Amino acid sequence: NMLRSNGVKMCVASATPVHLIHACLTRLGVAEYFSFLISCDEAGAGKDRPGVYLLASEKLEAAPQETAVYEDALYAAKTAKKAGFYTIGVYDKCAAENWEALKALSDETIRDWKEPVNKYNNK
Question: How crowded is residue 103: how many other Cβ atoms within 10 Å of its Cβ?
Answer without folding.
Answer: 15
